Hints:
- By secondary structure, this protein is α+β, with helices and mostly antiparallel strands.
- It folds into two domains: 1-101; 128-235, Histidine kinase-like ATPase, C-terminal domain (Heat Shock Protein 90), CATH 3.30.565.10.
- It has six helices and five strands; from the N terminus they run ααααβαββαββ.
- Strands 1-2-3-5-4 form a five-stranded mixed β-sheet, with helices on one face.
- β1, α5 and β2 (169-176) form a beta-alpha-beta unit.
- The radius of gyration is 24 Å and the shape is elongated.
- It starts with a helix and ends with a strand.
Amino acid sequence: xxxxxFVTFQKRKHKLLLExxxxxxxxxxxxxxxxxxxxxxxxxxxxxxxxxxxxQLLIYANMQLxxxxxxAPEELxxxxxEASESVKESLKEVRSLSKSLNNEVLLNLGFEExxxxxxxxxxxxxxxxxxxxxxxxxxxxxxxxxxxxxxRILQEFFSNSVKYSEAENIDVSLNYQESQLIxxxxxxxxxxxxxxxxxxxxxxxxxxxxxxxxxxxxxVSKPNxxxxxxxKYPY
Length: 235
């Protein structure tokens, strides 16, 4: 009876422990999901503000420049024309950025088009080349929220490359396989030592987002050898 009691007690204790672990896991996932939703709403709001407010201000500034140009002396017209072109380029950049922040626009554009739009923006802003390569037969990602999360992980990687990499080139490849999509992004920047570098919020965000959609996430870097991100997303 003592042995039976002990075995039964151990089984119940083990079951209770598993339930606690499962509850903690569900709680952590819910916290991550809520944080992601809040971030998306914030990005969407910023995207609207850029498009509606900053965009309108740039349009108005360009109109004012054109009015002044019509009355300006000839020797000033060339410089004012350059200023007008700069305003136009700024407007184009603001509109492109607002697209990449607004989740509704991204979902309408589609996954590949959204990545291309972001790479084109990066090329105008910093990089000599920013290319997207697609391999295999395209398979649609059924859950659009997962599609958005994958894009945000890439966007975080791009942001880190702009801030820290000192890279000239950035490449992204989408490899559509039978059971999974393999996404690889890399830059040719200064890299970093993974053993000694602190894990920043960007890396933590990328990893937690990947876990939300059951994707495998890895980041590899060495000093002077750039950074490579790889995501394996199961269909």
